[in-house]
Amino acid sequence: MKNNSLNPIRFAEAARFGFRVFPVKKAGKEPSVPSWKAYDENPATPEEIVAWDASVLNPGVTCGANSGIVVLDVDSAEAQTLVDSWNLPATPCVSTGRGRHYYFRHPGFKVGNAVRIAGTKLDIRGDGGYVVGAGSLHESGAFYEWAVSPDEVDFAHLPSIVLDQLKAKRAPAPKRKAAGSEPGVSSRYPDGVVAALASAEHDATIKIAEALDGERNDMLFSAGVRLAAMVAAAGAEWGDFADRLRDAATSTGLGEVEIDRTLASCWKSGSENPDPFIATARKWVFLSKPNGFYHVESREMLDVPAFNNTHMNMLEKGQFGGYLLRNDFIKRMHDFVYEPQSPEGVIKRDGLELLNTYRSSGLEAIKGDASPFEDFLSYLVPDADERSHLLKMIAWTVRYPGQKLRHALLFRSEHQGVGKTMLTEIWAELLGTHNVRKSTTEEITGPYQGFIMNTQLVVLEELNLGAGMRDYN
């Protein structure tokens, strides 16, 4: 039936094929009745069907055991390419405004709903779902029409590949994912919440799809608020996650206006109360070799008991670190290194992930007037040869951050306030202040000097000669 704009029996035709039908708003997908599920449980009366056929309402077709069908909803060229690769058997098919609906015979056992199969706009409408039927007016102005009618070919058995896709979609989300693999979650340093967000999104869509009629909007809100709080804490973009929830809610029959209103409320509530565990966990990395937690910004290392004690307000004593690790809220890595010559962030070596804690200064060279700095150095270091050597040292450390100087520089002056501190501050800005360590005689001569490995420049502003010449040397 190609001229659906003139079809006066849209609802009656669908009912003739054995489908349970109900009315959908004109040029839309939202039911025009309080509960479309009521018409899935008890078929519409002949009088209702006649009245609907005389209106401008679109026919909705319930999927599942009562209508005897499962529908594969293709809504993009990418999804169509995927479906074409499956070599599906001939079966009734409706051409929609943007794709196709493939109708298959219900297998006799419960078939759930799923959205975004293989990451494309490809959905499965089974028990508890519905589609807009043939003869409907699409919002684009096109009509849904049978490309292959049930009068031309019988409903094919539901292919195993479709069931496999449904099982894969409903399987537990993978525990580990590469940082930055989800929308909006990326960083120079590893973000351990990527897998947690993916798992929470997966769980939310399953809960929405399985919610009972009358409880679906409440489930959308409760699952959405939880996910929104996690997304806000992770600093991710809400839009992509909201789209997944919208797809899941649409497949259950919730109306578009209702869904959008609920999702807006989810984000408002969730963003105002970001998940405190994720907000804290994003600042840390767990390193397996030293068996401790590393604070990325301050570069502080805490063993497991110290980390748990520091965050006793988050969970019961001794449990916080384990909670973060079990829920994939925190990134696991083998160890950290400080390698200015290597890329910043995560580097892989011998199959292990290492965190390169080096960060450049972020400064870029531009042309300008360097005379103020030259005048300052002339005042600070009057001797031309010594001043030239100083400039070469500074230039070397800036140009070759991964190569250490093999000698130290000693400044002596008879008076205070001549500019030694100013020079070291300028030098530190060129290298990045986080790559410079201000130390003391006691620290530099003490037993723990591991900090030297994670710096480019160590500055001792005062030397204590009271301990003798050995420390001075």
Keywords, please?
473 residues, alpha+beta, six-stranded mixed β-sheet, four-stranded mixed β-sheet, 17 helices, 18 strands, elongated, disordered N terminus
Note down, in words, how this protein is organized.
By secondary structure, this protein is α+β, with helices and mostly antiparallel strands. 36% of the residues lie in helices and 15% in strands. The chain has 17 helices and 18 strands. It has helices spanning 10-16, 37-41, 46-53, 77-84, 160-170, 194-210, 216-234, 238-251, 256-272, 276-281, 304-310, 320-326, 371-380, 384-399, 420-431, 441-444, 469-472; strands at 21-24, 58-62, 69-74, 93-95, 100-105, 122-125, 130-132, 145-148, 156-157, 284-287, 292-295, 300-303, 331-333, 335-337, 345-349, 352-356, 436-439, 457-460. The strands form five sheets. Strands 3, 4, 5, 6, 8 and 9 form a six-stranded mixed sheet that branches. A four-stranded mixed sheet has the order 12-11-10-13. A hairpin with a 4-residue loop joins strand 10 and strand 11 (292-295). Helix 6 (194-210) runs antiparallel to helix 7. The chain is elongated, with a radius of gyration of 33 Å. Mean pLDDT is 85; it is low at 1-5 and 173-187.
Rounded to the nearest angstrom, the radius of gyration is 33 Å
| Strand proportion | 15-25%
Strand pairing plus helix content: what structural class?
alpha+beta
- Number of β-strand runs: 18
**What oligomeric state do the depicted chains represent?**
single chain
The helix count comes to 17
Rough shape?
Answer: elongated
Helix proportion of residues, in percent? 25-40%
Largest sheet: 6 strands, mixed
Separation of termini? Answer: 97 Å
Query: Mean pLDDT across all residues, rounded?
Result: 85
What ranges have pLDDT less than 50 throughout 5 or more consecutive residues?
1-5, 173-187
